Amino acid sequence: MNREQRGNEVLDLLEAMPRRPLDPGKEEDILYTLRHMSTSSERRNGILLAKIVGGILAVGAVFLCLVLLLPVISNTEGISRWFSAATPPLYSGEDAEISPIFDLVDKEGRIVYPDRLIGIKSKIAFTFDQRGFIAKSTDTVSKIFWVVWGDPAELRGASLVAKGTNLDTGETFTVNESKLGGPYYGYDASVVTAFNSFPSKGKWRIDVELNGKLYGTIVVPVKAEYIHTERYRFMISEDDALTGNNETTLIVPGHDQPDTLDVIAQLKDSSGQASRSTFRKTGDFIQSSTLEPVTEYSGTLRFDRPGRWQIELMGEKTSIEVK
Amino acid sequence: MDGHARIEQWFMEYGSDVHHFLVYYTGWDHVDDLVQDVFVKALIGIRRYEGRSSPKTWLFSIARRVAIDEQRKRKRRSLHASRYRSENCPPDRTPEEIIFLRQDLADAHSCVMKLKRSYRDVLFLRVMEKLSAAEAAEVLGWSVTRVNVTLHRAIRKARFVYEELNGGVGE
Questions:
Q1: What is the pLDDT of residue B1?
Q2: CB-CB under 8 Å, B105 with A42
């Protein structure tokens, strides 16, 4: 090899360095951080604005109601008619089907995470992990990716509003409000966000509007709250408490807690059958959602038979139904 | 589009390019945290961006700064550690170094890493990242002429080092 060729070789090699893209999991984490950062200052302004707008709307609504109700109040027949019109529609959770779960894929269609999305394929979906949603929990809804299929130019910047209806009870709440960002993996638009916690267990229908127009409806299951007493919480939903051993984490508020805690589970029938288990401290943490200090324990809740069980620790009690 | 949506979009478009650049520019295998730093800094400084350059060159200029700062920090840390290390202990290894599957690529990379900072800058930006002279000038805050002259010298020096590494001149 002559001098000139060898000299060029280093440049050729530099040009041929293998591509080193970001790891998809890491990409997700960074997006989450960026999104999380973005909410702190905006949210403060948003809350203030929402308070002002909310106040104006509330005063307006009360005034409007009074004006509309004046003629109705003057005759009783009118009142009964008004009440029948206001009866909420019937909901049947039994009939509604849970939306399909499918893989999250990259631009080339390769699977990044199997069974990670729930929703309508080729339209709109969001990430859903195996733990599922748990009523009143923030940790199961704290990191959600919306992915949307469509015209990226039209979707970018679109405002997304997701409204939830509990199909068993008719209860409603706003699940999420976001603004769509650019493409993500193989999807035309995306946004990483946190949902508000689902207020109750059951089948929830989520109606998703983009720029005020209904874009799709997704039905998700939400499990019962974490098993808890007034101050203590086991990181297991009552729906997941099964006969046998249930390994779980126990969260106790505050630091400087004892190294072990005894938990007594007692069957609530005439037999009075009981089991005692010891939970061991695994560490002191700061809860990310509330910034409160907490102590974590790990241990096993044992239920020998299905039925109603009472759980007692440090003088606090709760009772649950074990399948 | 607001600043956050724009940074999010740029992250989708250029996140992997920034990662690729940082891996080779630092010679470290794990630079995810640095990539995050780049975009967090971009988010904070988005007002300073306004129309100055293309997003890619702007992000690369932040990435280069982040890499240099981190290299200095680690150097200080290792100097500090070596002061307290007993003489019998082996020096800290650098487990983070990029692992190359091909020896020729490893040689070429280590040869570039031996050069001075300005030579490394132009070789990584102009040759590996294939930026134009004007784009590289934007990243580095130099004139285009300075980029061209430095590149010329850097190539000559890189050839020389590579030849030495491969056991002398010609065959």
A1: 59
A2: no
Q: What is the pLDDT of residue B90?
A: 44
Q: In CATH, what class is A101-223?
A: mainly beta
Q: Does domain A226-322 have CATH number 3.90.930?
A: no
pLDDT along chain A (323 residues), means of 10: 59 90 83 68 46 56 55 46 40 73 83 87 89 89 89 88 94 93 83 91 95 94 94 92 90 90 87 85 78 88 89 91 89
What are residue A134's phi and psi, to 5 degrees? -125, 130
Query: What number is the ipTM of this complex?
Result: 0.85
Q: List phi, psi (to 5°) of A207.
A: -95, 120
* B163 and B110 share one domain: yes
**CB-CB under 8 Å, B171 with A14:** no
Question: CA dist A193 to A37, A300, B43, Å?
Answer: 11, 33, 17
Query: Which stretches of chain B sit within 8 Å of chain A by CB?
Result: 1-5, 7-9, 11-13, 15-16, 19-20, 23-24, 32, 35-36, 39-40, 43, 101, 104-105, 107-109, 111-112, 123-124, 127-128, 130, 155, 158-159, 162-163, 166, 169-171
**Residue B134 to residue B143: CA distance in whole angstroms:** 8
Across the interface, of A29, A34, A184, the residue whose CB is closest to B7 is A34
Predicted local distance difference test score (pLDDT) of residue A194? 86
How confident is the model at residue B13, as a pLDDT? 85
Residues B107 and B154 in one domain: yes
Return all residues near B69 (Cβ < 8 A) that are at least 6 apart: none
Q: Which residues of A94-121 are buried (b: 16+ CB within 10 A; e: fewer)?
A: eebeebeebebbeeeeeeeeeebbbbbe
Which pTM was predicted?
Answer: 0.55
Q: What residue numbers bound the domain in which B41 lies?
A: 1-98
Are B154 and B160 contacting, i.e. CB atoms less than 8 angstroms apart?
Answer: no
Buried b (16+ CB within 10 A) or exposed e, B53-67: beebbbbbbbbbebb
Q: Cα–Cα distances in Å, from A49 out to A42, A118, A305, B136, B163?
A: 10, 33, 53, 44, 67
Residue A176 CB coordination number (10 Å): 20
Q: How far is it, in rounded angstroms, from Cα A193 to Cα A144?
A: 5
Amino acid, res. B98: I
Identify whether residues B74 and B110 lie together within a single domain. Answer: no
Contact criterion met (CB < 8 Å) for B105 and A11: no
Token digits of residue B91: 């020096």
For B71-107, what is each residue's pLDDT tens digit? 998 888 877 766 655 444 444 444 467 888 888 899 8
